Amino acid sequence: MEFVQKLHRKFYIYLLKEISYIFLLSLGVLTFILVLSRIGKIADLVINKGVEAKDIILIIVYSSPPYLTFTLPMAFLLSTIVVLGRLSTENEILALKASGVDLKCLFIPITAIGVIITLVALLNANLLIPKSGDLFRTTLINIIKKGITIEDKEGVFNDTIPGIVIYINKVDTKNKFLSGIIVSDDRDKDVKQTISASKGFINLDPVSLDLYFILEEGTLHRWEKIDDVYRNLSFKNYTYSMNLGNMLPHSRELRKRPYEMDRKELNKALLNANETDRYDLLLEIYKKISIPLSSLAFVLLTIPLGIKRKIEGKFSGLLYSLFLFIFYYILMALTENIGKTVHLPVFITSFIPNIVIAIIGLYLLKHLNDEERSRVSQKLRHLWVYCFEKIR
Fold it and tell me: Relative to the CA of 24, which of 35, 176, 237, 261 has its CA 20 to 30 Å away?
């Protein structure tokens, strides 16, 4: 009995180390791949505006939490199936059973990892994602400001703003005061205007992205091409403004989406939402709990899929993980659409994918300690036939 207990402890530590290594590696790779897809959307902004390496790193870091929602359970599923599959292939699982060890003891270390990942996922969904979304937007605005700033560009024609050319003769960087200002505006194809001023300064509103030129002692030349009218205006004080939101490849990314909101913001949005939006917002609140809990549902699947795939090839673990990952999120999208159509309670809609995964796992666990040579794929096929017959 003492030998079995020592064997359990050593095996638990060994299993925890192996799963942790592969989990961290797969989590990093999967998250980095998904983050790159978002970075690609603002690649033009990053490349053309000369953004510093520090800002690029911040964008990558602040873009990561939304993707951790998906990659945390997937990395857990992948790492556990791969490690258990290797142990089965190298007959280490067989050696455990020969030593009198019940394979259900595997639930102890794997469930412990699943609980830790679930807690991290809950923290990420309810705290990190809302905070990182705010920081991401702030960083993006700062990048825009750095890319279009004209306060340090004296004596050159600045065309970083589409359709506008700005020339400044002298810049007082300490007082942010400009002199010898010329602005040529060709954004409207039917109207061309040129503004010149002896002095002034600029200001950028970080919230609305409105750029203001406060100009003094100048003239405005305006040509309206359709009517062929030319206007000339002298001014003592003049404010010229433009919105820079269209500089972003996708300006809607600056708006806060439901999954980026915290509980308070979602509850506040519920007050003025219509019926359809209200269902979506309530679903988002419950998904902040149900998706992190998917790791615990996957615990029931990882053990049978890992130790029963000895005869199915070395790469079957990766294929099973990918298939289950796709299946889970297709099931989640399907249940959301059905829930909205038939008006299922939001709580049920959000937790149906976890319940389905848990039921499949319990079915595969029925003969965990048996030395049968059937494939996992055969078991899944038998389950499908059984469910189909029941429905029919």
Answer: 261
The residue among 59, 34, 105 whose CA lies nearest residue 325 is 34
In whole angstroms, give the CA distance from residue 383 to residue 366. 12
Which of 314, 289, 329 is closest to 74 using CA atoms? 329
Work out the average pLDDT over 242-267: 68
Range 162-185 burial, b when 16+ CB lie within 10 A, else e: eebebbbeebeeeeeebbbbebbb
Do the beta carbons of residue 1 and residue 97 sit within 8 Å? no
Other Cβ atoms closer than 10 A to 123:
14
Query: CA-to-CA distance for 71 and 134, rounded, in angstroms?
Result: 21
Model pTM? Answer: 0.68
Strand 157-158 vs strand 164-172: parallel, antiparallel, or unpaired?
antiparallel
Q: Is 72 left (phi over 0), alpha (psi -120 to 50) or beta?
A: alpha
Q: Which residues contact 391 (CB under 8 A, 6 or more apart)?
A: none
pLDDT tens for 325-341 read 888 888 988 998 888 88
